[in-house]
Amino acid sequence: MHTPALDALPPTEGSWVEVNTDTQRLTFWRGEQQDWHCSVSTGEAGTGQREGSGQTPLGWHVIRASIGADQPRGTVFRGRRSTGEVYDQALGTTHPERDWILTRILWLSGLEPGFNRGGQVDSQRRYIYFHGTPSDRPMGIAASHGCIRMRDDDLLRLFADAPPGTPVWLHD
């Protein structure tokens, strides 16, 4: 288990996001008050920092960028750009091998040098996101390739509530 430095304890003011990988639960906080929560799906390979691991990184992060504000629900992204497709069951059946990144992207950047920032453990360079997933994919169990998958309604709420600069704490 990763223990953050004392100067990286949860904020007592402002909004921040907590993701507990053990419970597969996201909690949105306003200071010391829980505002809302939802189920998520983190890395099927567990938690870890290493590039290429398929694991969800731990520690303190910040939302680096919000992508897709002008796109419709279900927009398919590749390389952080819309493909021009909108996901539906037919598209999913045609491309069953794709790891779908849908609707919006909230791109994370690690805040802890040597742990989740820099070198082979850099969350931003690993392209770790909050993103949407098809409605038939499970929530509440670890099944992603390292990112944090969310249902569209929950992701759209997070996108509205957590602009770039919002702190994020990922822990087990």
TrEMBL record:
Pfam families: YkuD. GO terms for cellular component: extracellular region. Residues 15-171 form the L,D-TPase catalytic domain. PANTHER family: L,D-TRANSPEPTIDASE, L,D-TRANSPEPTIDASE ERFK_SRFK-RELATED. Gene3D superfamilies: L,D-transpeptidase catalytic domain-like. GO terms for biological process: cell wall organization; peptidoglycan-protein cross-linking; regulation of cell shape. GO terms for molecular function: glycosyltransferase activity; peptidoglycan L,D-transpeptidase activity. Keywords: Cell shape, Cell wall biogenesis/degradation, Glycosyltransferase, Hydrolase, Peptidoglycan synthesis, Transferase. The active site is at residues 131, 147. The keyword Cell wall biogenesis/degradation applies. Belongs to the YkuD family. This is L,D-TPase catalytic domain-containing protein. Pathway: Cell wall biogenesis; peptidoglycan biosynthesis. SUPFAM superfamilies: L,D-transpeptidase catalytic domain-like (SSF141523). InterPro entries: LD-transpeptidase (IPR050979), LD_TPept_cat_dom (IPR005490), Transpep_catalytic_dom (IPR038063). It comes from the Bacteria. The keyword Metal-binding does not apply.
